[in-house]
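Structure in, sequence out. Go:
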């Protein structure tokens, strides 16, 4: 998420540390519990969130696994919220937004959608037949995710030799611990609200594509479902107000909208995907279709682990790269056979 990269740069915080700290606190960190609706967004949450961002054990593992080995952390967190679809994934330098791509990465389109034709009896194309099991770039960085979740391996090659505990001398190990810099001083509440504000702007490519899908003739329009990690804002907060105009409310663009904080589950929990499939299947049958299976669905997301769960369930997937979201729209066009870009955008990007 661009807001996190900006915060880290402004406050001279090591790159990807915020992502690493939030991901490393799963499954029961304060961010994850907030997204599951288990706790309120109050002083206690921000106190706990600050503590997660200052976890000394994770700080040591971060330096050992990433800074010393110069590895890049990718696709290991998915802190998102209702109406503010934020991905806390920092991108490598070559995925920074260009002037044309710049804008909030949290569009009214959640960082994910399930799309499917409304039934085999209709004349419109079936996404299950059109979808290809392809992704933009590397859809899942399993190595990075495993390292982040397990705290890294016990050894990090440096200058061609092992630095595992068994190969390092006591002097080397002591020196490494003493050279560890102090934990960054992060104001979790300030960070949180800057992310919420930044994420409320529509993505310049994903959102127009969503509108085009929504406004297709009934016989051509696929069923649109959103599977979104969310938070619940405090009573009376401005973000709780109905969108003006109503069309800017992300829920208004989907046939089905599943919010994590309302159902007590968050991606990449397979149970949340199963719930979505059940709702889509029910809607399809109500409209005269023969039902929906995972293979009939096309899942779009920017987080590798979320995409992996979808594929494990049998769905087709497209990965969104933040800063290059137009690429996902292009692939969605190729997959569905539906034009989703205007001519000006197409000429500038294709």
């Amino acid at each position: 998420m661009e807001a996190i990269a900006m915060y880290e740069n402004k406050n001279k915080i090591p790159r990807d540390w915020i992502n690493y700290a939030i991901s490393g606190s799963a499954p029961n960190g304060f961010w994850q519990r907030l997204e599951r609706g288990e706790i309120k967004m109050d002083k206690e949450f921000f106190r706990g969130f600050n503590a997660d961002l200052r976890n000394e054990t994770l700080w040591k593992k971060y330096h050992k696994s990433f800074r010393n080995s110069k590895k890049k952390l990718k696709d290991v967190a998915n802190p998102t919220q209702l109406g503010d679809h934020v991905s806390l994934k920092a991108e490598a330098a070559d995925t920074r937004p260009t002037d044309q791509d710049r804008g909030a990465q949290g569009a009214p389109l959640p960082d994910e959608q399930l799309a499917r034709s409304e039934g085999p009896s209709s004349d419109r194309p079936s996404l299950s037949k059109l979808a290809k099991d392809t992704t933009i770039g590397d859809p899942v960085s399993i190595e990075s995710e495993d390292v982040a979740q397990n705290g890294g391996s016990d050894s990090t090659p440096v200058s061609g030799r092992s630095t595992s505990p068994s190969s390092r001398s006591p002097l080397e190990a002591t020196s490494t611990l003493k050279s560890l810099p102090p934990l960054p001083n992060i104001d979790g509440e300030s960070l949180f609200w800057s992310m919420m504000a930044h994420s409320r702007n529509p993505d310049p490519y994903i959102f127009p594509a969503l509108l085009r899908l929504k406004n297709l003739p009934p016989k051509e329009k696929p069923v649109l479902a959103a599977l979104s990690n969310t938070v619940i804002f405090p009573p009376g907060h401005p973000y709780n107000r109905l969108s003006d105009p109503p069309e800017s409310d992300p829920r208004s663009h989907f046939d089905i909208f599943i919010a994590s904080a309302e159902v007590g589950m968050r991606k990449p929990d397979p149970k949340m995907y199963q719930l979505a499939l059940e709702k889509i299947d029910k809607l399809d049958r109500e409209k005269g279709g023969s039902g929906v299976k995972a293979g009939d669905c096309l899942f779009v997301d920017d987080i590798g682990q979320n995409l992996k769960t979808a594929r494990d369930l049998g769905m087709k997937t497209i990965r969104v790269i933040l800063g290059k979201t137009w690429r996902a729209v292009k692939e969605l066009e190729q997959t569905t056979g539906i034009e989703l870009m205007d001519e000006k955008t197409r000429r500038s990007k294709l």
